[in-house]
Structures are given as C-alpha cells and as structure tokens.
What does this fold into?
Amino acid sequence: MTAIDERTITDVALEQMSATPNPRLREIMDCLVRHLHAFAREADLTPEEWLEGIKFLTAVGQACTPYRQEFILLSDTLGLSSLINTLHDRRSVEVGTKTSLLGPFYRQGAPQKKLGESIASPGDGAEICIYGRIVNLAGKPIPNASIEIWQSDDHGFYDLQKHDPSQMDLRGWFHADAEGRYSLRTVRPLGYLIPLDGPVGDMIRAQRRHGFRPAHIHFLVGAPGCRELVTALYLRNDDHINSDTVFGVTDSLITETKVNDPSSPFPSLPSIRFDFQLGAATAREESGRVGADPSQIVKTARVSH
It folds into this structure.
C-alpha cells in the first residue's frame, strides 16, 4: 500500500479512478484532479481556507433557483465562460460572426413575433430599431433563419430580476424572410451591475471590482445546416465597454444606433444595422451555448438525483 502524503495523493486518487468506463469522463476527471491538487499545493491551502471555499460553493448552489443561475454567474465573472466559448469557436469549420456568452439570463419559450414587431412592453422606454440580414460566409442570404433576442430594459434589469419573474419581457423569437432579412423594435438597454446580492457579489466586492456589464443585446441565430450563433451586440461609448465584468466584449460586436437611417424599415427611429454571418455546421455539431435557462438546469439537477 502506497503511503499517502502531499506528493503521492494525486497518483493514488487517479489510480482509483482509472477504471472509469467512459473515456471522456476519465480524461476530464484526470485533468480536474491533477489541477485541483496542484492548485492546493501551490496556494498551500490551510484547512480554514479550504472550508471557506466549501462554504462559498455551497452558498452559490443555494442561491440557484428556476429564475437565477449563480453558478453560471460565477463562471462568467471568473472568465471561465469566455474561455469555454473561445475553445468552442476554435473547433468551428467556418468562422462567421464572433460569438459571445449566452449568460445567466437566457430562458426558453420566448414569444414568437412577426418581423417588425416590438419585444418591449408598453412603457419600457423609447424605441429603437434593429435590422439586417442573415447570410452565409459567401454573403448569400439564409432564408427563414431563426433569431432569438433578449436584453435588459432601459434601467438595466432583465425580466428574471423583476417582482414577477414568470412574466416575459424584452424577449422575442423571429424568422428572417426569404431574403434573409430581419427587423424588430425594442428599447435601448442600459449597462448594469450583475446581481451582487449573493455569494458572487461578495466575491466581486472583495476583489474591488466594479461589477458592471456594458449595455448589450443578446442574439441566438440558427438555420438548418448552419452552426448556431450565440452572440451579443455591445453599445459603443458605454463607460464599461473596455472592462466588462464577464469578459464578453469583442471589437467586431461593438455597434451604435444611428438616426435618420434611410435604409431602416423604421427610419423615424434610431436604428442598429447588423448582418449576422453563419458558418457551416460540422457533422456532429456540439452546442455552443455557454449558458442555459436557469429552470432547465434546476430541473436536470433534480432528475439526476
């Protein structure tokens, strides 16, 4: 029997896990154990610090509900979500519009809308128009592509953060026309503080970080034979465009509203024009959604137990 100490424990643990039938699970757990053990040795963790970490992760789990995903928020603020996103992009066979994070506020079942309709409820704020085309990398239109959109309101809040989170607002699901054109109306979102009333907020304050995300609008665009695009448009001149707390901003996704745009289907409204390019899907395309509907994660967790 191998004597277990700080030098041998890693190999002993890996040997015990070596019979894992699923090769990918075995590979992932091997990497996880090696890096966790290396982290503990490098930081020279004390029992008190280890327990504080356990308490923190417990609190993160307890903060998760069908309307809130604190673990995704934690992953986002540590830069892990952005890293997973870039690793997924590296596997693509064609590079189209740059991707971004799905985030912790995505939810399934957005109401289906007709082109040109508004996703905002009355009183949400002054309207803007978003329009453009869905095309492939050759610039040819992709007919009937689906477009999901969601965003915060003009005060910086998502519907999931409001008094009745079961009510949907500022979400919609559209289909482009036969020429790949899309258009919709919404309100200009406001940059916002991530939720700071939970354990992730405690971490952000302890790190002396500002906790802000720049104003942005999320999109989920797809079509048969194409790689699903998860992305967001970020509004220029936001105070935090260069210091996004969740590291989601890319130069090519920064845009701004224009006034008196003659090409806009609503020329009287401030408009954003953006054409989305979809790359081809691989034979076995994995999901690129770095995020999920909070209610689906809770449901899946319960089933797995």
Remarks:
- The chain has a mean pLDDT of 93.
- The chain is about 30% helix and 15% strand.
